[in-house]
Amino acid sequence: MPKSKRNRPVTLSKTKKKPGLERKGKVVTDIKDAVEHYANAYVFTYDNMRNQKLKDLREQLKSSSRIFLAGKKVMQIALGRSPADEAKTGLHKLSKFLQGDTGLFFTNLPRDDVERLFREFEEHDFARTGSIATETVELKEGPLEQFTHEMEPFLRKQGLPVRLNKGAVELVADHIVCEEGKPISPEAAQTLRLLGMQMATFRLYLVCRWSSDDFETYKEGLAQLRAGWHIYAANMLHLLSNGVGGGAGVAEQGRQCLADALRHARRPSGLPGPRPLLRRCRPPQLGAHLRIHGALRHGRHHALWAHNMAFGRRLLPFVGRPAPALAQDYMLTQALLPSTLHLRSYGEVETAAVAPLYPSASMVFFQWAFAGVTVGLVAGAVLGRMSVKAWMAFVPLWTTLSYTHLGRRLLFHWGVMDYSGGYVVHLAAGVSGYTAAYWVGPRRKEEAGGGNLVVMVAGAGILWMGWTGFNGGDPFSANTDSSVAVLNTHICALTSILAWICCDVAVRGRPSVVGAVQGMITGLVCITPAAGLVQGWAALLMGVASETLPCYTMNAAMSLKVDDTLGILHTHAVSGVLGGVLTGVFATCSFRGLIYGVRAGGVQVLKQVAAALFVAAWNVVATSIILVVVRAFVPLRMTEEELLAGDIAIHGEQAYTNFSSGTNCSLSHETIEVGNS
């Protein structure tokens, strides 16, 4: 059967192929003609090339000279690479210098005139991305009168921490646009252009000269040619670390996303960690549901309104304006924490704002993980008896009234040192969880027992891995603080494990796997507020301390009537306070701990203690009020019948069942019997 003509492809546009070989051949011919017509040939290099300026120079010298900028290999072929194929005697010597940013200059002008021309030629222009800054440009905090209010969003995209104050653009903190001797970023190049600062100078340097009877090189040109390679390498490193646009660094963005992934690895199972496996919490699916629901729903609320309440523009002393953090204009701008400046009584900035080199979307996702982990920890204290409906009502209220009001803004401005959430995550969750356990009441006595210790160890490994992102991602930058934080995290955790094992051997006569896992958790929590602020030897001491005090409080609390299912108060609240106070003692950063300065360090320790008391008091009051209000509408605790029946009564399915047999059952006498069995 013949082919249909309808299937014939029809080209709607025709383009001519680029005459690559013909064009290269013409360049070779033109260079050989120039060798015949001009007495001198020079190799030159350049800095901060500007095409229009070079075009003007060509036009100025076209009567006596000719300039070639082409492929290096093409120009080498035209001149000759060796004595055997050179166009004229000695021309192959020029070919050796045609490397990097170089060109050919043919002329009949006297040598002195050429040297003076190249020495005096310079054209100033605005710097481009990758250029080396010739001076440090720093903008001081205060109004930027040269910019109108319409430019405020654009300035934020360029990384400037600005805001509108009565219609005027105001810089909320000192900002360094560029530093002398370092490559200029795309955002800095735009800012310098707006400021009218020309940092680039287009210059030409002679590298070598050839004539029929002479050949010489120029030291200045050779030095510039060698320096060009170093500049090229520096620019490549700069582009790899800061990207070429979008306001975010490639390396910073990749590092932050990795930290986010490690942290979110803790969330799928609810994420108080491996400790649900230390206790047999009936019903088991209810415990998993509370943790998953709390972590995921709290994360959603964080993105919808709580992120801006914690980090956005100021509304009240403790809280920012609630607003969604999902709009494209917000997510693509450079992150800025916090957006509201706080000044001392005499006008000095208490703590400057933080502006990491990645967009706000990465920061929202990073803080989202904090939010999910925190509410998951609260769930760990009320496992096995809290009503699902009451929990669903509790989570958004606690997100709004407690978690976002934890003094993030206030503590930050006070200069309280909490590197990665020892107070606002662990202390807050521990106190809130213990308070919730008091209001909900204890578990049934027959439910208290052991769990699956083998799977617990696997969960401990996942938790430990996630903590690397927990502390390693908090400097908001790939710097030395991040490296120190990761190392100190592992040092403290290992030390705490060994200390807990030694304590078990001394007291019980044998080591305990449960004790080792508890030691790991208390060590990780204790180092969290200090991870990047202390030295390695201090992390060792904190590891020993993180075993001693939580172990004592855990044993001393046995006589109390509050049933904290997973011991959140001891492993998180006590360890978090201990780590925060010891941070004030051992810190080596600009704040200086007690041992590095008695006067300033003593004030810092008092700040750490006051902050711990503030966070604890706030969470006790806020959590109690929320649960009292929820209790007026929904019972906080499941009925005894539901607790007796277990997961079948609550979810219509069992934790361990054959799905082919069906799981949907209604609450009845038979259901209770199944639950008992």
Protein architecture, described:
- This protein folds into three domains: 23-124 and 201-242, Ribosomal protein L10, N-terminal RNA-binding domain (Alpha-Beta Plaits, 2-Layer Sandwich); 137-199, Molybdopterin biosynthesis moea protein, domain 2, CATH 3.90.105; 250-638, Ammonium transporter fold (Orthogonal Bundle).
- Helices cover 53% and strands 9% of the residues.
- The protein is built from 24 helices and 13 strands.
- It has helices at 20-37, 51-61, 72-79, 92-95, 111-120, 152-157, 186-195, 219-242, 250-264, 284-311, 328-331, 360-380, 388-401, 408-414, 422-440, 453-472, 480-508, 513-527, 536-556, 568-586, 598-631, 640-645, 647-651, 669-676; strands at residues 40-47, 65-68, 102-107, 122-125, 137-139, 142-143, 162-165, 168-171, 175-178, 200-211, 214-217, 314-316, 319-320.
- Strands 1, 2, 3, 4, 10 and 11 form a six-stranded antiparallel β-sheet that branches.
- Strand 10 (200-211) and strand 11 (214-217) form a beta hairpin.
- Helix 1 (20-37) crosses helix 3 (72-79) and helix 10 runs parallel beside helix 13.
- The chain is elongated and about 105 Å long.
